[in-house]
Design a protein that fits this description.
alpha/beta, Cobalt-precorrin-4 Transmethylase, domain 1, Methyltransferase, Cobalt-precorrin-4 Transmethylase, Domain 2, 3 domains, five-stranded parallel beta sheet, five-stranded mixed beta sheet, 12 helices, 10 strands, 45% helix, elongated
Amino acid sequence: MPRSRDAARGTKSGTASADSLGSAARGAEGIGQVESSKLAPGLYLVATPIGNLADVTLRALAVLRSADVVLCEDTRVTAKLLARYRIAAATQPYHDHNAERVRPAILARLKVGAAVALVSDAGTPLVSDPGYKLVRTALAEGIAVTVVPGPSAALAALLISGLPPDRFLVAGFLPPKAAARRRALAAIKAVDATLVLFESAPRLGESLADMAEVLGPRPAAVARELTKLHEEVRRATLADLAAHYRAAGAPKGEVVVIVGPPAPAAPSEAELDRALGDALARKSLREAVDDVVAATGARRRAVYARALALKGGR
C-alpha cells in the first residue's frame, strides 16, 4: 500500500530493550518449534506489531514460521520482524499496486492446498489495505480463512484516547484534497459513535481544522507513535488540536485521530414537557428531573425550571 497509508499502523522498530526482545525471541522460537506443524490449508490473516516487536503473539509466530508463503505489503518491513524471531519464511509482495495482478496466482496456490499468511506492514491486515478483496474471493471459492488476532493501531488509539469505546466507527484515511475531505466528514457527521480516523502527519493540521469545521466542537485525541519510544497522546477539542498543530507544525511518526461522538440533540420544549409529565406522574420532582436530565442531556437548570412550572400548573 502507499506509504502515506502506512501512517496509521507504524513500521518502525519497537521500544523494548535488546536483551528483553532477544529473550522473547528465544522463548517464542522454542514454543513455535514445539507447536509448529504443517498448517491446515487456507488463508491466515496475521496481526503484527504496530511498533514494539515484543507485542507479537505466540500464535502469530507459529503461523508465520509454518506458512508456505507470507504475503506482505513491503517484504523489507516484514523481514525485520521475521529476522527478530529467526523465522526463515518465503515472502511475497501483496499491496495496492500489484494485488489485481497477483491475486489469481495466490488463489490458485490456495486451491491446491497451500497455507498462506497475509500480513500488513504493521497491525491487523484488511484495515485500509487490499487484503479484504483476497478474503472475499477466497471465501467465495470455498477456501478456509482464519484470523490470528493481535495488535491494532485503531483499537490501541481508541482505548488510550479516553473517549467512549462502546460504539465506534473506523472511518479509515480521509481524502487528501480539502474539498473531498470535507465531503467525507459530512457523510459521517451524524454517526452516533466515536470516530477512528487515520491521517498522515504532514496533513494533520489542515485535516483537524476541517474536522473542527464540519463536525463541530467535539472532544478528540491525536495518538502518535503508539507502543514506540516517543508515544504521545494529545487530548483536547478538535479546534484546540487544530490550533496546536498549525502552530507546532507536523509531528513526526504515525498518527491516529479519535473523535468523540456528536452531542445528543437538545429536546424540543414539547418533548421535554412530555418526558417531565411522565416522570412527575410517578416520581418526586427531584427524581423526575434527574431522570429527564439523564435521558435527554438537557441542562439541569432548564429542566428543573420547567418541572417547577409544570408542577405549579397542576
